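Q: Predict the bound structure with zinc ion.
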Amino acid sequence: MPPGEPVASNSEKDEDVFSEPKEKRYQPCFKKSDPFVEPLLNFDADTSKMEEVYSAVSHWTQIALDLKAKGYPIAEGINNWKKFDAKTREDARMLDDFLNLFISKNLYAQDKPYEVLRVLIAQGTPYLEFKEKMSRVDFSIKCNTIWENDAVAYRCNTCALTPCMSLCESCFDANGHAGHDYTRFFSREGGACDCGNQDVIREQGNCPEHGDESKRPKYEMNDVCIAEYIVMKLLVRLFLDYRGWLWSHRDFPAKV
Ligand SMILES: [Zn+2]
Ligand SMILES: [Zn+2]
Ligand SMILES: [Zn+2]
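A: Predicted complex:
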């Protein structure tokens, strides 16, 4: 959120505390018709020309990358933006205003208004390709896969530290538990995989993807620089929605 926009702020006094002096106040510097705005504003997965869409995405990706390189905060607070130069602050607010065009929509509307967020998050990569790439770097020390009743699960007495330890099929298969004393069972009540949870399973029982010794995949935070802004804004948006605060005052910067 940009400074000067605290929730329920409506007095001059609040403005003085949270925003820059009025004469320096940032003015939005893009138009609905700009080639880096229009294709995204009117995005339609079925009819949009993707080369125009990706070109617009690359404009915003570059801004996000530059902000990240300079260490600009993902969420502006009262003071954390003040040490940055005017151009950087202007870029950040432009990105902020731009993302608000999409995040200010009704949260419970149909999916359509949010499709463009997927395109932005993917930063110019086809969305499914991006999703696949992200799933390859998804990492957790514990599996925690949850299954419902009558799912197949495993229990290895050789590896278990407690009698109720259980493993999902994929973790069990990935380890193999060769020569171990194990049982395969239908989980009546459902359950969760304990792979990687060293309170209940010996390290030897983990699959290669879980546990303290598992290899962390290499990832590149620049791949998600727009996602960082979007996810933060969506969380704030969701929180405000829960608080009953309606987003009505900035569907689009008024002077554009
Ligand atoms: Zn085992
Ligand atoms: Zn596992
Ligand atoms: Zn598992």
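A: The chain has two domains: 12-138+223-242, 146-205.
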